[in-house]
Design a protein that fits this description.
Length: 456
Amino acid sequence: MSEVAINQDASRRELDRLAELAGDVIRRARAAGASQAEVSASIETGLSVNVRLGEVETVEHTRDRGFGLTVYFGQRKGSASTADLNADSIQATLDQACAIARFTEEDPAAGLADASRMATQFPELDLWHPWMIDTADAIALGQDIEAAGRAHAGITNSEGASVQMGESLSVYANSHGFVGSERGTRHSLSLSLIAGDEAGMQRDYWYDSVRSASDFMSAQALGNKAAERTLSRVGARRLSTRQCPVLFAPEIARGLIGHLIGAVSGGSLYRQASFLLDHAGKQVMPAWLNIVERPFLLRGQGSGAFDAEGVATRDSALIENGVLARYVLGSYSARKLGLESTGNAGGIHNLIVEPGHGDGGAADDFRGMLKRLGTGLLVTEVMGQGVNIITGDYSRGAAGFWVENGEIAYPVEEITIAANLRDMLAGITAVGSDVDKRSHLLTGSILLKPMTVAGE
């Protein structure tokens, strides 16, 4: 059994203790003159093991606590936090938050979310799956993963395998009387390998991330996947500068959807720092494309019954027939914009990009997406920070594969792909059924109309 795992009964007792502490601090904040107050408290435990070349590099056990308090004196706000849950530290945190609020300028948008929006239903979402693995077994698993990868001919070195177990307990409470408790687990495995030839060295990796360890791919399969990806990059070439269609692999396509979310999120909008400012209700993607938020997926990476302010989450379209149906807002940004919270304080809860294309019929798997690409660029890695959410300008270093007649021809590297996000989103021609489930952004590969590919 893991030295740091929290069992079922202990987790419930810890949540009850955090909820009791949160309620007590809110009562004390009100007694100190606060008109409103909210508390976030958490306990996180974990085990992380790294092995390289069969030897243990690091073993880390963690048990972190967090306690954050925000008080409102009218529309003056003060926040303070501590990692220590003893009585003196909590009192000092309360005193500090109140002192800050008394001397802070009033903000008309400050305050708790509306009381009528608080969650009242808390369905079981199957997020709690403690992994009872001890250090010795975690080390052995890491060694097995690495050995599986290193067994492939052509693999010359390893950057190591990691095994991580994580559990989190959290409580959010506020002076509306809302108390919400959540517990969840996240576990991961990964391996990074190196292959080389006379032209140079190539590195690649693979990982798996799950709520329940029973859902992991096998050590052999993960090692094989990491090795196959690494070996496939040997002999990479540069391309001449050209215009061509581009297929983003699912893990890269996820980033494109992340840029969309950033552009329609409240902070970017009320600061007028988005290329999609004032685009709600307007066509921003192809008419066949839909993106929906599903907060209640069982074992979902982003599942939850309430957001960071206690607002109830709900199934909701973000893109409907290519039209931007709404923004992504918490209460503060909503008030700044004269709108209402969309239950997204703290982020998105499982965003699903529905597979499909404009031709009708079934969505394509990855091989089908290559056929649909025909001749063009498959991107499996992007580098750099060349994305401007204000203007939509997109220019990033990339690597991947040149595809001819629907078949991978050879690996490519040291290229740059460039376009404008507005054109990229409008120019999506297909979304694959090869969905990457390791994130709260759930999408298959995405095929785009021609972009500029800069190389030699």
